[in-house]
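User: Quick sanity check before I run a bigger batch. Here is a single chain. Can you write out its predicted 3D structure?
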Amino acid sequence: MKKFKSLLISWEALLVILLLIGVVIGSVLSPYFLSGFNFYALTSNIMEIAIMALPMTLLIIAGEIDLSVASVLGLASVVLGLLWGNGHPMWLAIGVALLVGLVAGCLNGLLVTKLALPSLVVTIGALALYRGLAYVVLGDQAVSDFPTSFTNLGFGTIPGTEIPWSGLIFGILVVIFVVVLHFSRVGRQLYAMGNNKEAARFSGISVSRVKLMLFILSGVIAALAGVIFTARFSSARPDNALGFELAVVTVVLLGGVNIFGGRGSLLGVVLAIFIVAVLQDVLNLRNISGDIQSLAIGLLLVLSVLGPNLARRIQVVITRRRLAAGSSMQS
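Assistant: Done. Predicted structure follows.
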């Protein structure tokens, strides 16, 4: 009974309720909301953000952050487009794009670990650096003549379903990240680092090495999101995914991950991803302007910071009252 009550007041339970409310509102406001095609559109539109949110979750739990992910996505996209436009095979263009993400993430990680610089400052600078490099590489041009076999990665669906291929990629990554974070020694190390880096270091955890690997992972996954984004829009442009870093951070914090590290779960993040997807889809179906949608995302970011902290305080109050009631009964 106590576990059931704890589940009811958990942040993840509240997210489930919010998601159900969003689905009900969407189905009431638009007859197309529950259609198969709309499910495809809703899912595919959020997948790049969802994919980048997975390593971001690990980083924030470990007490760090990477605000350069959207710029890495854009840089990987233009590198892929440039190589394909110059006649190189697609497999090579994708491989080099992923390598660009690896190098970008490694640079971020080395600046944080070797120079002991705050990741917030480092990645804000990297945000501008990588986006600037994207413009240097491709200028104000765009590459759009991609083969159908590649664009199917962004447009196509799994045969017999309305699930996009990017959704399958996301699902596979979710399983991997859940195992790493919640069922492995590495995951326990991340929570320990987020709670107290010095204590984690004294316990034998190689904090610098783990941080470096997290930033490299973030860079590679952002580049993968860049490949998917390029395929979905069939266009490689320097401004691809401009401003996506705000949405990535929003879904991670809305999912209940503590901005100061040490707390959070991937279940909450996945629920938050679909809450944001439903919100954006409902606004699109109602022809709400992009400015209002940006306002809604900003409000969600504020809620994502305040909400989990408020839920934890409520849990603490309930626990204290339960303990006080138990002690009074014993006396």
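The two ends are 24 Å apart (CA to CA).

User: Great, the batch can go ahead then.
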